Each structure stands twice: as structure tokens, then as C-alpha cells.
Amino acid sequence: MAKRTKFSKFRELYNVIEDLADTYTYEGVVEILAEYHDLKLTTGTLTNYLYRHRKELSVATNDSNSMARVNHDINKQKSTNSQDGHSEIDSQDDEEIDYDALLEQFKNKHQTKSLLDK
Q1: CA 39, 41, 44: angle at the middle one, nearest 5?
Q2: Is the distance from CB of 11 to CB of 50 less than 8 angstroms?
Q3: pLDDT digits (tens), the chain, 118 positions
Q4: Which residues contact 14 (CB under 8 A, 6 or more apart)?
């Protein structure tokens, strides 16, 4: 069986760590993690892991919000087209719309943007 990384253990314990960080200093959190959760970190590593994981969560939240906006825009466009009587997709049922392709386009666009931003 593959050995788990410290960061994977950290992710699993993230909510516990955040709760501990509200009460204890990072030095105290590091001691508690080592003693009770078998996760040995330095305070510098803990700080780094918190930063990395919060950034991951932020990106995931932004992706979810962006996808919700895309879905909203698609539904708005469908509604507008239907009201105008000029709908390009009136002849299609909702099941025929290729949402997977739309999602893939969104992911590719977002991934390219992320790579360029770095």
C-alpha cells in the first residue's frame, strides 16, 4: 500500500486544523497534530499547507461560481431566444443539448486562463 503524504493527511484534517488554529497558536496546533493525529509538521510547513489548501478551496469555489454563471447564461439565452421566436435550439429537447461539451469548453477555457496567469 502506498504511503500517504503529509499533505493528504493535512487535507483530511483541514477542518480540525482550522478549528484548532482559532484557539491555539500554530506551535500549539503543530504539537496537537503530532501527538493526537500522527502528523508531524513544522510551523512553517503548517503555514504553507494552510495557504496552499485555502488557495485550492478558493479556486474550486471560483470554478463552481463560474460554472453556475455559465449555466445561468445558457438558460437566459434559451429563454431570450424562445421569447423572440428565433431560437436556434427550439427544435431540440433539453436532453439533446450537449452539456458535457459545454462543460469541457468551460474547463479548457479556464485551464488555459490559469496557465497564462501563472
Answers
A1: 155
A2: no
A3: 667 899 999 999 999 999 999 999 999 999 999 999 999 999 999 999 999 999 988 887 776 666 666 666 666 665 555 555 554 444 444 456 666 666 776 666 655 544 445 4
A4: 53
C-alpha cell at 93: 429537447
Q: What is the 3-state secondary structure (H, E, C) of the chain?
A: CCCCCHHHHHHHCHHHHHHHHHHCCHHHHHHHHHHHHCCCCCHHHHHHHHHHHHHHHHHHHHHHHHHHHHHHHHHHHHHHHHHHCCCCCCCCCHHHCCHHHHHHHHHHHHHHHHHHHC
Query: Phi, psi (5° rounding) for residue 58?
Result: -65, -45
- In degrees, rounded to 5, the angle at the alpha carbon of residue 51 between the alpha carbons of residues 107 and 53 is 50
The length of the chain, given as a count of residues: 118
